[in-house]
């Protein structure tokens, strides 16, 4: 059976508290597996207001109805309201996801801080953010995380190196078409990347006549033929775990009918022959429907042979 990995990014306190349990219930109904990647520190979603000056951001906000998905209170965290500590307040929920049999991993420490700051951050800043996230994960689960999936598909060279040095067995930090070993400025990082291969719901809704009522049909058309390595679909606890839960219900049913095994990043990684995995550069670029640049799978890297 071809695999379709469900990668669930959990960005906020509200998404953890409400969206995650709803997703667990729906996945169980469909006998589907998934990987949950958690934001483990403070929820500072309100600080994203500075993105209003980024090209394309306000257009995306108007399309996806941010207030209805995230709630007004969440949009004030870190500005007019203190940001709740997600890992401390929701530790039982996070452990419950693991106990239900799902893969768990690290999304970030502070979602807004990482997404808006990591690209140009120095080594010390990057190490601190990843150490905070890793320490909180160990505090909650009693063991180190094995999978990392960056907030907003944002990384830098040191963050990529740390996926190897901190012992992650696999990561999903970028967008692309198939699993690969990442190369940053000719430096090979020995931690396989399992990129998101499909557009997200918030990138599709509101464009070319696509709405909440038919977006599942568009995605199912994209997955009608399965690539050899399968697909990785990123969803969000704040979207598919709440207002868009009925859309996910239709997608899960449709993917089952298409013959997919709904699986985890770990299961995809375990099927790979790492010695034969192609090496690809990671580059910055844009994705339709999403503002700003993010990390993409680039061209295959062919090292020069020494004669």
Overall radius of gyration: 18 Å
Structural class: alpha/beta
User: What number is the mean pLDDT?
Assistant: 92
Residues in β-strands, percent: 15-25%
The number of helical segments is 12
What is the CA-CA span between the terminal residues? 44 Å
What is the succession of H and E elements?
Answer: EHEHHHHEHHEHEEEHHEHEHEE
In total, how many beta strands? 11
Helix content: 25-40%
Which runs of at least 5 residues are low in confidence (pLDDT < 50)? Answer: none
Major pleated sheet = 5 strands, parallel
Judging from the principal axes of the Cα atoms, what is the shape?
A: globular
Topology, element by element:
Blueprint: E1 3-10, H1 13-29, E2 35-39, H2 57-64, H3 66-70, H4 86-89, H5 91-99, E3 103-108, H6 111-117, H7 123-141, E4 147-148, H8 157-165, E5 170-171, E6 181-184, E7 187-188, H9 201-204, H10 215-222, E8 231-236, H11 245-257, E9 261-263, H12 265-270, E10 279-285, E11 294-300
Parallel strand pairs: 1-2, 1-8, 1-9, 2-3, 4-5, 6-10
Antiparallel strand pairs: 6-7, 10-11
List keywords for this structure.
307 residues; alpha/beta; five-stranded parallel β-sheet; four-stranded mixed β-sheet; 17% strand; globular
Quick structural summary:
This protein has 307 residues and is α/β, with parallel strands linked by helices. The chain has twelve helices and eleven strands.
